[in-house]
Design a protein that fits this description.
This protein is of the alpha+beta class. It has 2 domains: 145 residues, NADH Oxidase (3-Layer(aba) Sandwich); 50 residues, no CATH class. 41% of the residues lie in helices and 10% in strands. The radius of gyration is 21 Å and the shape is globular. 21% of the residues are buried.
Length: 278
């Protein structure tokens, strides 16, 4: 049986001392060895299984039991085609056996407040954040349940590249917007690639925040990641501005990406779409 230490070592790209002889089983094995799937067979996902997975999504915790999210299952061929043509990166997920959009939803409780005769006094930044977190937790619960049943999954942030178009295609009213698209299907290839993560010492802080060793930790991580899975020219960001490197460490690539504005109109869209963000 696989040991936890083997899976943790694969996730971090280095040996760890805290796993001992723990055997990897159940949820720990599933999560430590997971990876996103972008290639699916044509085999459909049965409706009954999909509805069970949606029930798993709704089993996630929700802030104050407000349940400020919705899930759109997109099946209409015209809508899928339109979503796929929105921008680069949306063509393949919309061809998956199942495509979902996980959405923050302020509208539902606004409508219920009117029905109950109460004022809704919380159209603010906190409600925006609560809806995003609720939708994210639901998506995570769906993903782990689906992967536990042998399905492959991949969240899709590109749906927000033209979020106004996505909302129009899916007929999302004011107060409802997608935090992510989500592709689901039976994986074409059995074993997904495990993405090496930042060292635990960089991400986890005990009692107080400490990034005193950030540069050395991330430099070591960049070399480990390059040795395992180099960032090739096709994955390097903004090569027209920065050129192509033989050795492109993770920190170089992600800071390249964020050196140019991304989705700069998002706040303006949200305000137009019903969110005050006050």
């Amino acid at each position: 049986m696989t040991k936890v230490a083997e899976l943790v070592a694969a996730r971090y790209g280095t040996e760890t001392a805290y796993c001992g002889d723990m055997e990897a089983d159940g949820a720990i094995r599933q999560i430590l060895s997971r990876g996103s799937q972008r290639h699916f067979t044509d085999q459909p996902v049965p409706d009954d299984l999909l509805k069970v997975l949606l029930a798993c999504a709704q089993s996630a915790p929700a802030k104050s039991d407000l349940q400020q999210y919705s899930i759109v299952v997109v099946r209409d061929a015209t809508k899928l085609k339109a979503l796929g043509e929105m921008n680069t990166g949306m063509d393949w997920p919309t061809k998956a056996p199942v495509f979902l959009a996980f959405c923050a939803d302020m509208r539902r409780i606004q409508r219920l407040a009117a029905v109950q005769g109460h004022d809704h006094q919380n159209n603010n930044l906190d409600t925006f954040m609560n809806g995003v977190v609720d939708a994210s937790l639901a998506m995570l619960s769906f993903m782990y349940a689906a992967e536990g049943e042998g399905l492959g999954c991949c969240p899709i942030s590109q749906i927000r590249n033209q979020i106004d178009v996505a909302c129009e295609i899916m007929e999302l009213p004011p107060g409802v917007f997608p935090i992510a698209g989500f592709a689901v299907g039976w994986p074409k290839y059995e074993t997904p690639r495990v993405s090496m993560r930042l060292p635990q010492e960089t991400v986890v802080h005990w009692d107080s925040y400490d990034d005193g060793d950030l540069e050395s930790q991330v430099e070591d991580y960049g070399r480990r990641r390059h040795d395992s899975s180099p960032i090739g020219p096709d994955k390097q960001r903004h090569t027209d501005k920065y050129g192509v490197l033989d050795f492109c460490p993770w920190a170089e690539n992600v800071t390249r990406q964020l050196s140019l504005p991304e989705r700069a109109g998002f706040a303006a869209f949200l305000k137009k779409h019903g969110y005050d963000l006050a």
